[in-house]
Predict the 3D structure of the following.
Amino acid sequence: MRFVLAPSVLALSALGLAASPALAAQEFYVGEPVMKEGLQIVPNYLTGIQMSAHVPGMEMGKDAIHLEADVHAGKDEAHSLAEDTWIPYLTIKYQITKKGSPLYHKSGVLAAMVAKDGLHYANGVRMDGPGTYRLTYVISPPKLYRHVDKASGVPDWWKPIKAAWTFQYPSKSK
Amino acid sequence: MSLKTVLALTALAGAAIAGPARAQAPITVTLKDHRFSPAEIRVAANQPAILNVVNDDPLAEEFDSTALKVEKVIAGKQSGTVRIHPLRPGRYPFMGEYHSATAQGVVVAQ
């Protein structure tokens, strides 16, 4: 939940002078959670986000979304991570394509960041107008050292996880 | 009073005084048509609580609360456990962020 609504904007809204009615940060559904390797992977996007500082290459502005991945431990995560623990030090590559727009293709890496709704991975991605999009995440294991002795060791990391969703943009939910 | 009864009473008294704080039973909250029921959840202040959130809608919802510092995504037609840390008395709003126009609720700690 991220509200970014300055008093001056409220005042403008009250006067009916605001250029855009949707300035507050809002989060939108992209697809169902995917459970893989004991992790819950959730895609979503937000609008109205401002950042400090910008991730290098981060696309911002009216036609860009704040693309997120929420990755938390599930019930029986094998590395002793309690349910709902945020997974740090992941490398998450994203790819977005649009149905019927062969020239539109976006790819990059999500960056770890923090907001009022917790730690997450995200980046800014310019969209190609309304339509049907395909999002793919490829998640590489956390860059974390591991104990391997008999008493305190945890298993080796998994192979990179791939998860994909088809979604409508802009989202019709709310 | 038999010795057995005395022992049992002593054990009970001991548990009441020195025993660990009793966890509150999980509270079930159901989400249907993007509305929480109950929308107002009462918990005991200064004690942990557990919500069993049943998502009766076909698509995922994000149980989100800045006040509770909780964010938990529950897939469509699934349920999820939301753990609430001990709260000072007060009102703690939460929402289903994908449908925040209607999916609103509050945890009341008292």
About this structure: The beta strands of chain A are 26-29, 34-36, 39-47, 64-73, 91-98, 101-115, 118-126, 131-140, 161-169.
